[in-house]
Amino acid sequence: MFFRRRHTAAAVLAGLALTLSACSGSDSGATNDQGFPETLTLAAIPAENSTDLKSSYEPVIALLERETGSKVEFVQASDYAGVVEGLIAGNVDLAFFGPFAYVVAGVNGAEMTPLGAVVKDKGTPPGYQSYGLTRADNSQVNALEDFKGKKVCFVDPGSTSGFLYPSAGLIEKKVIASGSEEDLSAGVQPIYAGGHDASALAIAAGDCDAGFAFDTMVDKTLVEKGDLKPGQLKTVWKSETIAGSVFAANNDLGTETIAKLKTLFTEKVNAEYLLGEGLCTGDCRITDERAWGVVPAEDADYNGVRHVCEVTGSEKCKG
Fold first, then answer.
1. 3-state secondary structure at position 52
2. Residue 189 and residue 150 in contact, taking contact as beta carbons nearer than 8 Å
3. Taking the CB of residue 259, how many other CB atoms lie within 10 A of it?
C-alpha cells in the first residue's frame, strides 16, 4: 500500500502551478446572458483515493451549468494545499473545502464566502466527527494514550478530521507536546495515507497500529463498498463535532453573483432536488463525501476549527 509522506513546501508549491494553471471565470471579466462568468472553475480533492473525482460531482456540475449558463471546469487537486493556493492565485472560482483547509485558505489571504456546508442527512445540522481507530483484535490500543510510540496513520497535513483534531486530541492526552512536526514525530510515528479510506484500510491491514478517519467513511462508506467488515475496526476516540465541509466562492465573483450562488447551493444542491430534476439517479452524489445536500453556513461556523489551531499551535494552520 502506498503512503504519501509529509510534503515539503517547495514540492507543494511546485505542483500547484501545474495542477491549477487555468484562469478562473472571474479573471476573464466576461459574463453570459444570465450575468455569470462564461466559465466557472470548481476545484476539490478526493476524500477517498480516486482517479475520477469528477464523477461524484457530475450532478452538481450539471445543475450549475443549467442554472448559470456557465461552462464548469472541474479540477481535481492532488491535496488540500492545491485548492487553497488555486483560490488565492485566482485560478479557482468555487471550491469544496474541508473545514481546516477553509480556515487555512483564509489565514493565507484567500478572500472567499461560504456558499453552504454539506450534511449527511436531510434535516440534520452540518458536522461530523474524527475517529481514533485500531484493529478490533488489537488489545494493546484502547485509548488515545496508547497511540504513543505507535505507527499512526493520519490522512493529510491539511485534513481537519484526519490531522488537526487528532493532533489536538493527542495533545490533550499528553501523547505529543504540541502540533509541531518535531513534537508529533517525537510522540508517534506519523504516516500520511493521503485519503480517509486509505488511512482506515491501512489500519485494518496492520500497516498502521492505529490512526484516524472521519466517521462516515468508517461506519458507512467502506462497509457498503465491502472494503471493511462491520466491527473490523474499533473506535477508541471520537472528536467533538466538527463544522461541515463547505463550498466557498472566490470574492472576485462579486456580491451579486455570490448571493445567487448561495441561493442555488442551499435550495437546489441536494439529492432530493437533483433526483427530481433527473440530474442523477439512484445513489445521488453531491460530493464524494456521500452527503445529502447543502445547507446555509457562515464564516463564524468555523471558529471551532480556529480554536483547535490555537490549541495545537500547528504550523499547518498557518499554511
1. coil
2. yes
3. 13
Adjacent-strand bridge partners of 42: 74, 94
The three cell numbers of residue 203 are: 489500519
State pLDDT tens for residues 79-107.
777 888 888 888 999 999 888 889 988 98
Would you state the pLDDT for residue 87?
Answer: 87
Spatial distance between the Cα atoms of 93 and 114, rounded to a whole number of angstroms: 12
Pairing of strands 246-250, 210-214: unpaired
Distance of CA 130 to the CA centre of its chain: 12
Question: Using the 8-state DSSP alphabet, how is residue 208 labeled?
Answer: S
pLDDT digits (tens, 9 = 90+) for 168-209: 999 999 999 998 889 999 999 999 999 999 999 999 999 999
Closest CA to 90 of 142, 41, 38, 141: 41
For residues 278 and 302, is the Cβ–Cβ distance under 8 A?
no
Residue spans of beta strands (DSSP E) within the chain: 39-44, 71-76, 94-97, 112-119, 130-135, 151-154, 189-192, 210-214, 233-238, 246-250, 293-295
Asked if residue 103 lies in contact with residue 40, where contact means CB atoms within 8 angstroms, the answer is: no
pLDDT value, residue 12: 35
Instruction: Return the biggest CA–CA distance within the chain.
Output: 64
Please check the confidence at residue 279 and state whether its pLDDT lies above 90: yes
Phi and psi of 37, rounded to 5°?
Answer: -60, 150
Share the mean pLDDT of the chain.
87
d(CA 45, CA 113): 19
Per the CB < 8 A criterion, the answer to whether 241 and 40 are in contact is: no
